[in-house]
Amino acid sequence: MTDGNTVNRPVARPGVMAIAPYVPGKSKGSRVRTYHKLSSNETPLGPSPKAVEAYKTAASHLELYPDGSTAELREAIAGAMGINPAQIICGNGSDDLLGMITHAYIGEGDETIFTEHGFLMYRIVTLAAGGTPVVIPETDKKADVDAILAAVTPRTKIVFLANPNNPTGTYLPQSEVRRLHAGLPKNVVLVLDAAYAEYVRRNDYEAGIELVGQSENVIMTRTFSKVHGLAALRVGWAYGPEHMIDALNRIRGPFNINAPGLAAATAAIKDRAFLEAAVDHNAKWLPWLTEAFTELGIEVTPSVGNFLLLNFPEGSGLTAEAADLFLLEEGIVLRRLEPYNLPNALRMSIGSEEANRATVDALARFMKGGGEQAAHG
């Protein structure tokens, strides 16, 4: 029996059910057995063979708990990056770390700031912590430092900056990131989400290591899911001031990375030759695809990541929705971007040569009139 003040099942705290859950990109095409999945920014080269071997070795001891301190992986990361292992924390993907950072520094009434096409998880972790997301317009699909700084209030506790940004592929140069940091109050955390840092080949780019080393309020997050090809294992890491790492270690789960994941990630970051091969593959196909799509009449936002933002011409009837339907019939899976407020754009991961050429060929047919048939057929 219930009265007017009780309900007959548990109720989530206010705000939880208002969170739009994260929806990943589709995995398969339509009506075909062979498909090219280019919706999740996965590397076409897969993981390092050394990482696979380390995974298999660890899998023979699944009865044992993993190393809760992640000492070996932190030492490997520190060696590869030239940083202090005591300033590194590892997590179940960088999503886990973004959640930890937010829970550590955001409470009811606090605000986080991020840009309008920023990673969807920034909103989710903010709302989950009881905070208020403040979304800032971009300029030419790029973060606007002046607009971000103008939005800072006494309630601001975190600024999230994906650099490079997903899904646009744009980035801020080191000088602009440092200008952003200099303009923030000392008690505001600047989170530099550098998930795609390894792919960037620009002399004016810096992932955040130097700024973290010189600051008390900057933390950089990274992932093994992209260039290292370990997306299935969910391993990420962050580098920050020791006082911030100490705070995060107090709230993280005691065994928040599985043992095969730890082993594979440790081997992966030591395999520099394989990483460089993945970066070289991306460096070859990123400009090739950009030029090919531009010639088809599709506007491509300049990207420094392992993906492209394809903007379809307005008013032509050749919409992103129609293109997506057409490509799915061809067994090609790209990412729809309505959740990012980019309804007439698709995001394409840089794939294998076969996948890249197949996508260009399919979109060439679509742009010549095949889209109308797909949209109405």
UniProtKB/TrEMBL annotation:
Q: Where is the Aminotransferase class I/classII large domain?
A: 37-363
Tell me, which GO biological process terms does this entry list?
A: L-histidine biosynthetic process
Gene name as annotated? hisC
Q: Which reaction does it catalyse?
A: L-histidinol phosphate + 2-oxoglutarate = 3-(imidazol-4-yl)-2-oxopropyl phosphate + L-glutamate
Cofactor entry: pyridoxal 5'-phosphate
Subunit structure, interactors included = Homodimer.
Keywords of the record: Amino-acid biosynthesis, Aminotransferase, Histidine biosynthesis, Pyridoxal phosphate, Transferase
- Entry EC no(s): 2.6.1.9
For this entry, the protein name equals Histidinol-phosphate aminotransferase
Annotated pathway: Amino-acid biosynthesis; L-histidine biosynthesis; L-histidine from 5-phospho-alpha-D-ribose 1-diphosphate: step 7/9
SUPFAM superfamilies (alphabetical): PLP-dependent transferases (SSF53383)
Which Pfam family name is an example for this entry?
A: Aminotran_1_2
One GO MF term attached to the UniProt entry: histidinol-phosphate transaminase activity
Keyword DNA damage in annotation: no
| Record-stated family | Belongs to the class-II pyridoxal-phosphate-dependent aminotransferase family. Histidinol-phosphate aminotransferase subfamily.
Highest classification ranks of the organism? Bacteria, Pseudomonadati, Pseudomonadota, Alphaproteobacteria, Hyphomicrobiales
- On the tree of life, the source organism's domain of life is Bacteria
PTM N6-(pyridoxal phosphate)lysine: list the residues: K226
Organism this protein belongs to: Amorphus orientalis
